[in-house]
Amino acid sequence: xxxxxxxxxxxxxxxxxxxxxxxxxxxxxxxxxxxxxxxxxxxxxxxxxxxxxxxxxxxxxxxxxxxxxxxxxxxxxxxxxxxxxxxxxxxxxxxxxxxxxxxxxxxxxxxxxxxxxxxxxxxxxxxxxxxxxxxxxxxxxxxxxxxxxxxxxxxxxxxxxxxxxxxxxxxxxxxxxxxxxxxxxxxxxxxxxxxxxxxxxxxxx
Length: 205
Description:
Layout: H1 4-15, H2 21-30, E1 34-38, H3 41-53, E2 63-67, H4 74-81, E3 89-95, H5 99-108, E4 116-119, H6 123-131, H7 133-142, H8 146-154, H9 163-171, H10 177-188, H11 196-204
Parallel strand pairs: 1-2, 1-3, 3-4
Helix pairs in contact: 1-2, 3-10, 4-5, 6-9, 6-10
C-alpha cells in the first residue's frame, strides 16, 4: 500500500532530476489534493505533532506535508506539485526572511501565495514566544540539556542578547536538536497558544 513517506521520497528524487512517474502514480493512489511546503524537517516535526494532537490524519485527508530542504527549493517544488506538475493546491510555512523565494517560486508556478503563512523569524521563534522563555527553559532542563544551554549563555557572543534569541540559537547549535524540539515545543502548547502561522496553516488544509 502506498504511503506518504514513499511519496516524499519520490518527490525528492523528482526534484533532484529523476523521473516524475513514481510521484504521479503515488499521488493518484493516495488521493492527494493539497501539498504543504515546509523549509525543513524541524517544521515537519511541529506540523506532524500538531496534527496528532488535533486528531488529524493528514494523509487520509489527501494532504501531503513536504520538507523541501531549504526555502530556495520552493520554486522547484511548487512547479512539480502545483499547477504545472501534479496540480495540487499549495500551502505552507515560511520564514519572513525567505518570503521572497516563496513569492517568486509560487508566481513562476502560477500558484496562489495566499496559502503561505509567514513566521515572524522562523517557526522555532514563534514556538518560543508562544510558550514563553521560562517554559522553554523548563523543557530544556527536563530533556537533560540544561548544561549545554548554560554553556551557550556564557559565551561572549550571546551575552546581552534577549533570552528568546539565545534559546532560538541554542536549538540550532546541534544536529537534530531543532527537529527534537520542534516536536517537544509543539507538544507543550496549550490549545490557545498555537502560533498564528501554524494555526492558520491547519485551518487551510
